[in-house]
Amino acid sequence: MKRLSSALFLPLCLVLLLSLLSGCAPTGTAAPPSPAVSPSSAAEPSPEPSSEPSSTPEPVVYPGPDIPLTVWEGTVEHLFFHPVVCYPELAFDGDSAEKGIDDWMITVTEYRRILDSLYEKGYILVNLNDVWEEYTANDGQTRMRRAQLMVPEGKKPLVLSFDDVNYYEYMLTNGFTHKLILGENGELWSYGLDPQGNEVVSQDLDAITILDQFVEEHPDFSLNGVKGCLCLTGYQGILGYRTNTESTDQSPEFEANRQKEIRAVRPIIDKLKETGWYFGSHTYGHINLGKEGRTLESVQRDTRRWLDEVGSLVGETSLLFYPHGARPDGDDVRQSGPMFQYLQSEGFRVFCAVGGSSYSKIKDDICAVICDRMHPDGLTLRWSRERYLPFYDAKEVFDYEVRPDYGYDFE
What we know:
Elements: E1 69-71, E2 77-81, H1 88-91, H2 98-104, H3 108-120, E3 123-125, E4 132-136, E5 142-146, E6 150-152, E7 156-163, E8 179-182, E9 188-193, E10 199-202, H4 207-217, E11 229-232, H5 252-274, E12 278-281, H6 296-314, E13 319-321, H7 338-345, E14 350-354, E15 360-362, E16 369-373, H8 378-383, H9 394-397
Parallel strand pairs: 2-7, 3-7, 7-11, 11-12, 13-14, 14-16
Antiparallel strand pairs: 1-6, 4-5, 8-9, 9-10, 15-16
Helix pairs in contact: 3-4, 6-7
């Protein structure tokens, strides 16, 4: 039986998924489940982390010294995903969450097909931090500029980012994996429950571990082992661990469990960094920075909380990914308003929205660059086939067997 994956767009509680996700307050946390291994399906058992002594193999890093490099001067394409749907029978079961998941996520099968297509078309993964750099101009002011990005001849650079890699509570019953864990040999696995409630530890059901495997099998798909950027909120913890504070529960028991979750997630973060992953902010509460009435004070509170509860764990980052793709201060393309200036003052330099192309603009009034990312998801698979043909053909990617019948624009 084919295993499918779970992916999601913007964080929102289960009840609000249809309204394009909204930040809902977390309610309490439970101790993390133990990473027991059980079958991922009745027909095909999930691979077990080895009980042999730890011996993580050296990764194959591409390119080698004999591969000629050239300066890339064209557009650096940028695609982003949400968590992938691994159990479509839970995601597409006709409940109130179905349409939102169909709109903003792709399945494991679709994700694998997209990776295959990107590889076949000659793309190579690069780090967004290597695309832009800060420098001091002749007037003594710091500015941003395109860095000299060197790629192997015949390859095209591509940035991948992954929003909401937090494993929100609503995802846990809607066909997604529950968290990242480490196997006995120190490799990354996903943990979750199958539709029958059985514990599943796998490397085939989560966007992170699937890409890890893909790069291991195709080292020339990654420049020096780079994978992608994990864009994190914080209001329900990170990476499946409930590291967040909670205003409605400040009991010693809650805090003890939170500290336990923090200790558990640290080695996950270290392993991700070690294996080519890096981090960006998606704001703490998945707040809409372009929402009418949004105040500077609310952005400051949210940012401080992200830095305290998320940045303190994943480290410094200059990358900010706008929730809902909404630009602050009305339009950051034309103005650098007080919200934008504040966020820049906190160390953010690359600000990513969402659009129909991999657009970028270096700001001339402040040290920052603004970008758009493209979004492979249910909506663009159904209705934007032509636009995404440089990357993949939606007609060949679409998971006809499991998707609800909401139509599409191809025969």
